């Protein structure tokens, strides 16, 4: 990596915990990091620990006491002299404000925690004034960066809901008039009341008082810095918010560039789950419901998750044009734009009589539909009106506000019931499937014909669905409408999604998925990168039936045509047949491949060159069987190295010419956490593989040759090689090292290695604890990385 292109970061309080992990992650992404700590000895020990991860070239220690101006000045001088600029400042150093240090190494009991005036004063000096002093000292160097970032590590304890004092809350919450002087005024008042033992009387927190107030002050200071320096990204993040699914820790005070979302039918079920996940991602969400009382109760419920600042309720009846217009006017007045619209409101079009019978019918049991439930023309008419025309009404009213967003997203909550294979009427199926000629008028024509036949009692004769008729037709129409809108607004990302069989009131809670699980794919679509697909139908995270047109070729580019390979031809063809059940037959083709055979690789490369002319994504998954690895003989070790490392290398070398023809080439090497360098006691091997700057393929070969030689001689343990799964560990360490070499050699590619986790597969006798689908998630995410995605 060229020195001029390096990014530089400072992380305070980084010898352990969050700070240490932040340093590790930044360095792993190619950032040169100054790990700082007050205690010099502990700081150097932290650097030594990072060497195990092969990061020694990217991490430097410098002593820092954030409460000491001279110490800060010394660090600033060092950074200016050595690097000339700073790109990232992470203010992590902080203390609790209670006697935790005295209890280190023992079980912490809340009743034993004490807070004194001295500890409180020190807490404010460190957590707030320390962060402030460090920031102000580094601002001149940050201003020399093309992309300056300030990250203040805060806490949910600092949310204003935790401070009862109306005066303090008002001072901190008044964003327009907020100044550093006002923050100082609040802190002086707090510390005065602390000294006078009048915390509770004056509305201050009584538990972790100084910590909470210092973090509230830090959150407010973040806002003032963001306002004062608009060219910087200044954010505050709570370490206490755990990563949930594909969502990251909640941003408490973003750079005043909030995203705004509307979710219809959100007082319960999937809509409620989506509001929770979107707000947890730092998005301001307008939760809507037809029933005002239920909507307000839903917002109150979400306050329990600490999301009250990011949620607002507005009444909405999607069937009422006046109600829709009122909502549009509210968003325009309050926010000036809209970024995300989730059309979730819907009805079933029938009544469920027997939930148990419904479940048995769904599982294939021969049960008459009239035993399960009933449908009437009035219910069907209401269903079409809400599920299709309601969605169209809301969408068209909010499109002008979505056009003001830099990343507009529309997600239509649909169902697999609306897939065209469920409609026997050939005329209707043809009308809705002709993508290029599809129009809103044609959809209206299909729905009118359906309703006419329903009224006349001729559903079955005319080939319409016999059960859940209106629901099926309304969702089929919605999928078709999604395609039309994607074509009409090519800079939007508009998709429909089936969330799966979720436990909701609509199915008497007979579903198999939780609300949170059902919300996952819709939220993923709401947060799609700008390179993501549009005009698609999604189910379980996978896209199908995507709109394709000349205007939107980039959408189709995201719909990868996959060459599934396997050594055993019969098993490979069986796998392709299995994928047909998911409606993917048009996107998957089989080709035989043995990664240890150069001729087999050459044959595949020729096939791809002839049929496709290029390659966008290469995923190397082939592994030698664990059951052979556990026998630990020289032959199986040699086979493991040949397959896991040299097989991947041969594949990459053969396909790089085709990948170079792609606009967004990706290589994903499926590795393992067992290949981490900390698993290899041999210091020489660890040193070779961790020296990123001087790493070469020849050096990797040298390590592998020495390993195999020592294996053959029976000297694994004495030479410091792993003695369990030896070849597997070493081959994966070599693969990860090779990934780095390639990433350096081909900077225009996105090349990463990934451990999918302990997945239930034949390799481990299905003893893993995550499913195959879950294991594939990280791999696919890397394959679909947006341009600029970093080496991991």
Automatic annotation (TrEMBL):
Recorded GO CC terms: membrane
Descriptive protein name: (+)-neomenthol dehydrogenase
UniProt keyword Nucleotidyltransferase present: no
Family listed: Belongs to the short-chain dehydrogenases/reductases (SDR) family.
Alphabetical list of Pfam families matching this protein: adh_short, adh_short_C2
A GO MF term: oxidoreductase activity, acting on the CH-OH group of donors, NAD or NADP as acceptor
Keyword terms: NADP, Oxidoreductase
InterPro entries tied to this protein: CBR1-like, NAD(P)-bd_dom_sf, Sc_DH/Rdtase_CS, SDR_fam
Source organism, top-level taxon: Eukaryota
Gene3D superfamilies, sorted: NAD(P)-binding Rossmann-like Domain (3.40.50.720)
PANTHER family (alphabetical): (+)-NEOMENTHOL DEHYDROGENASE, SHORT CHAIN DEHYDROGENASE_REDUCTASE
């Amino acid at each position: 990596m060229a020195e001029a292109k390096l990014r530089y970061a400072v992380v305070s309080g980084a010898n352990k915990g969050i700070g240490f992990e932040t340093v590790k992650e930044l360095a792993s992404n190619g950032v040169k990091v100054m790990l700082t700590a007050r205690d010099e000895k502990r700081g150097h020990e932290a650097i030594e620990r990072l060497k195990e991860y092969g990061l020694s070239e990217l991490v430097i220690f410098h002593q820092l006491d954030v409460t000491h101006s001279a110490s800060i000045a010394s660090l600033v001088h060092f950074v200016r002299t050595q690097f000339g600029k700073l790109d990232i400042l992470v203010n992590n150093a902080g203390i609790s404000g209670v006697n935790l240090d005295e209890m280190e190494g023992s079980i912490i009991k809340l009743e034993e925690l004490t807070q004194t005036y001295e500890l409180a004063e020190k807490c404010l000096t460190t957590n707030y004034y320390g962060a402030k002093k460090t920031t102000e000292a580094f601002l001149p160097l940050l201003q020399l960066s093309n992309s300056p970032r300030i990250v203040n590590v805060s806490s949910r304890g600092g949310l204003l809901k935790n401070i009862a004092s109306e005066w303090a809350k008002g001072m901190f919450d008044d964003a327009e008039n907020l100044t550093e002087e006002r923050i100082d005024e609040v802190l002086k008042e707090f510390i005065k009341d602390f000294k006078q033992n009048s915390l509770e009387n004056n509305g201050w927190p009584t538990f972790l008082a100084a910590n909470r107030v210092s973090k509230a002050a830090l959150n407010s200071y973040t806002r003032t810095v963001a306002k004062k320096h608009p060219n910087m990204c200044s954010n505050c993040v709570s370490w206490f918010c755990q990563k949930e699914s594909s969502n990251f820790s909640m941003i408490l005070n973003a750079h005043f560039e909030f995203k705004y979302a509307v979710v219809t039918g959100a007082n319960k079920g999937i809509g409620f789950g989506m509001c929770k996940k979107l707000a947890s991602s730092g998005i301001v969400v307008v939760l809507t419901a037809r029933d005002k009382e239920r909507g307000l109760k839903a917002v109150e419920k979400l306050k329990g998750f600490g999301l009250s600042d990011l949620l607002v309720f507005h009444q909405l009846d999607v069937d009422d044009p006046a109600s829709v217009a009122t909502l549009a006017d509210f968003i325009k007045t309050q926010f000036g734009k809209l970024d995300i619209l989730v059309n979730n409101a819907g009805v079933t079009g029938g009544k469920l009589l027997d939930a148990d019978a419904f479940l048995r019918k769904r599982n294939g049991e021969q049960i008459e539909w009239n035993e399960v439930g009933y449908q009437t023309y009035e219910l069907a008419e209401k269903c079409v009106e809400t599920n299709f025309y309601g969605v169209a009404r809301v969408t068209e009213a909010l499109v002008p506000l979505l056009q003001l967003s830099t990343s507009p997203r529309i997600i239509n909550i649909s169902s697999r019931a609306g897939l065209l294979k469920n409609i026997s009427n050939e005329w209707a199926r043809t009308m809705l499937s002709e993508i290029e000629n599809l129009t809103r008028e044609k959809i209206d024509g299909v729905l009118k014909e359906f309703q006419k036949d329903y009224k006349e009692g001729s559903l079955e004769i005319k080939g319409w669905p016999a059960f859940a008729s209106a629901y099926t037709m309304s969702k089929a129409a919605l999928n078709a409408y999604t395609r039309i809108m994607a074509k009409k607004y090519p800079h939007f990302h508009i998709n429909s999604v089936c969330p799966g069989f979720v436990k909701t009131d609509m199915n008497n809670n007979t579903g198999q998925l939780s609300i949170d699980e059902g919300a996952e794919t819709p939220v993923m679509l709401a947060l799609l990168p700008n390179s993501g697909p549009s005009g698609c139908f999604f189910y379980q995270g996978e896209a199908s039936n995507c709109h394709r047109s000349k205007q939107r070729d980039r959408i189709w580019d995201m719909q990868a045509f996959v060459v599934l390979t396997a050594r055993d031809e019969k098993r490979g063809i069986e796998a392709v047949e299995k994928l047909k059940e998911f409606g993917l037959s048009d996107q998957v083709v089989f080709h035989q491949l043995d990664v240890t055979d150069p001729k087999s690789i050459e044959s595949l490369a020729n096939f791809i060159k002839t049929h496709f002319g290029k390659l966008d994504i290469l995923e190397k998954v082939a592994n030698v069987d664990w059951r052979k690895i556990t026998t630990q003989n020289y032959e199986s070790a040699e086979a493991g190295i040949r397959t896991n490392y040299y097989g991947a290398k041969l594949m990459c070398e053969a396909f790089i010419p085709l990948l170079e023809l792609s606009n967004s080439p990706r290589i994903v090497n499926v590795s393992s956490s067992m290949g981490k360098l900390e698993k290899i006691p041999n210091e020489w091997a660890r040193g070779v593989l961790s020296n990123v700057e001087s790493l070469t393929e020849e050096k990797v070969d040298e390590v592998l040759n020495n390993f195999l030689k020592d294996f053959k001689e029976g000297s694994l343990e004495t030479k410091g090689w792993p003695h369990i799964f030896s070849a597997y560990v070493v081959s994966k360490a070599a693969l990860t090292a090779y990934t780095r070499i390639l990433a350096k050699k081909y900077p225009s590619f996105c090349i990463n290695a990934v451990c999918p986790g302990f997945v239930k597969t034949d390799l481990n006798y299905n003893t893993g604890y995550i499913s195959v689908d879950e294991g594939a998630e990280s791999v696919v995410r890397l394959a679909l990385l947006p341009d600029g995605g970093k080496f991991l």
